[in-house]
Amino acid sequence: MGPGDLERMLSRLPEEKAPELLSSLHTGEDAGVYLFADDLALVQTIDFFPPIVDDPYTFGQIAAANALSDIYAMNARPLTAMNVAAFPCDMDPVIPQEILLGGYDKVHEAGALVVGGHTIEDDEPKYGLSVLGSVKVSEMTTLRGAAPGDVLILTKAIGTGIMTTAAKAKLVSLAMDEVIASMCELNSGASAVISARGVHAMTDVTGFGLAGHLYEMARASGVAAELWAKEVPLFTEALVMVAQGMAARSSAGECIADRKVEVDTGGVDELLVQCMFDPQTSGGLLAAVPPEKADEILEALRSGPAPRASIVGTVTEADVPKVTIKHSRKG
Amino acid sequence: MKADIDCTGLKCPEPVLRTRAMLDTGPGPFTVLIDNDTARDNVRRFAQTAGCEVAVDETDGGFLVSIIPGASVKTASVSCPEARAGSVMLIASDEIGTGEHELGKTLMKMFLYTASESDSPPSTLIFMNSGVRLVTENEETAAHVKKLEEAGTEVLVCGTCLDYYGLKEILKAGAVSNMYDIQSAMVGATLLVSL
């Protein structure tokens, strides 16, 4: 679902208000945050989707890494997870076993526990998890806080939506290895590296694509942002696959029509713009960091948990929040 | 609304695959009926990449995409069986044969020069693995390949290999390609020569 669909769906839900509630349904945060002790909050999140890769164990790992990602985006620590699943009743029982095992192993890699779950019958399999984590409120990172002058760092390459569509069409096979490895990778290491060195705002890149999530950050922080398309790391063949008609459903049209995202008139390649909106599964973290910390953070990410981390843009002042996609840093 | 291909209710990548299947039959102009923005853009981009002229009209609740297959197809990513009838040469190394490297490299340079001067050049050249050095780092061989390309030889260069060796930025001849197109070029070849 696009941001607009979601807004419409939520529009009639009354806003929850409680002194303990630190998050809001309407600010674009994926996780709920509930204060339960002096400086300690619970972070709760859920995500599930149909298989995007053939191997069931790998799918389980990806679904879990993706669900855990919201926790890491807030610099929280995952504690427990519950499986959410739907399987056809005539499915070979080995497949659900493998999916659940993949999820279990990934949750354990994250240092959390699988404590239960719920399964229903459905023709199309679906799997994901609800994750509970905790965070010190003083250390929590959110969409809010990005300041003009901040440098935008992205920790993983972009293009999982395009590449999984191309894989369905059997146009790519070898090139998928890199994509699958990236989707299986937890955002824990990158989150720790960034948070330890100082960060103003952070989110994980998922369904709205890089440009869509950057807009959410700009809106929550009351700033504007420049996205430098050519600097954004892409998976091998992602751009070629957009030219082959393999884009996944994205919020590009809606964001551009609503002028949330403007594409610089300097002639940014249409195919590259599409990549900026490609919906990501288990995408990387997008962080707005103070300029004086940017090089140090980038170096620590690249030599450590996120070899493809890159500086992809900057935060600017604005009366109206928006994202401008430019070809590169120079325009 | 009547269309040659009705893709209403179909999710990506299915509309593109049906358009591709239609293009593979070597058709005249045809239309595709589509009911969502993503498929519209995908079919348009695919057809444009395949060298077609494309027009999109809005219809009741959807889009009619009109496609005029192009006469000259210059992009790498096209499944056009006719274009590959003829000899396809797979060059998966920067030298010919095993033995002294210096000799192997010289032989490769001589081969590409001879091919570029030949009256019956290969219809397709595919460069993979260290073969991609011949169209990037090695300016002499790249010039021979460029000459072949200008004379009508299709030159496919493995994108994964260019990335691996970090040579994509200095590609001097040919088009960056993918395994699907390379595979179809090899399977569709009347004569496949592996060097």
Helix and strand arrangement:
The complex is a heterodimer of chains A (331) and B (195).
Chain A: H1 3-10, E1 32-37, E2 40-49, H2 56-73, E3 77-87, H3 94-109, E4 113-121, E5 126-136, E6 151-154, H4 160-168, H5 176-184, H6 188-197, E7 201-204, H7 209-221, E8 224-228, H8 238-243, H9 252-257, E9 261-263, H10 270-276, E10 285-289, H11 291-302, E11 310-316, E12 323-326
Helix pairs in contact in A: 2-3, 4-5, 6-11
Chain B: E1 5-6, H1 14-24, E2 30-34, H2 37-49, E3 53-59, E4 62-68, H3 81-84, E5 87-91, H4 101-117, E6 124-127, H5 139-150, E7 154-158, H6 159-165, E8 175-177, H7 179-187, E9 191-194
Parallel strand pairs in B: 1-2, 5-6, 5-9, 6-7, 7-8
Antiparallel strand pairs in B: 2-4, 3-4
Helix pairs in contact in B: 1-2, 4-5
Tell me what you see in this structure.
The complex is a heterodimer of chains A (331) and B (195). By secondary structure, chain A is of the alpha+beta class. Chain A folds into 2 domains: 137 residues, PurM-like, N-terminal domain (60s Ribosomal Protein L30, Chain: A, 2-Layer Sandwich); 176 residues, Phosphoribosyl-aminoimidazole Synthetase, Chain A, domain 2 (Alpha-Beta Complex). Chain A contains 11 helices and 12 strands. In chain A, α4 packs across α5. The two termini of chain A are 31 Å apart. The model of chain A has no long low-confidence stretch (mean pLDDT 94). Chain B has 195 residues and is of the alpha/beta class. Chain B folds into 2 domains: 64 residues, Translation Initiation Factor IF3 (2-Layer Sandwich); 114 residues, DsrEFH-like (Hypothetical Protein Ychn, Chain: A, 3-Layer(aba) Sandwich), CATH 3.40.1260.10. Chain B is 37% helix and 22% strand. Chain B is built from 7 helices and 9 strands; from the N terminus they run βαβαββαβαβαβαβαβ. A 5-stranded parallel sheet of chain B has the order 8-7-6-5-9, with helices on both faces. In chain B, strands 1-2-4-3 form a 4-stranded mixed sheet, covered by helices on one side. In chain B, α1 packs parallel to α2 and α4 runs parallel beside α5. The longest helix of chain B is centred in the middle third of the chain and has 17 residues. The radius of gyration of chain B is 19 Å and the shape is elongated. Classes of the chains: A alpha+beta (331), B alpha/beta (195). At the A-B interface, α4 and α8 of A face α1, α2 and α6 of B.
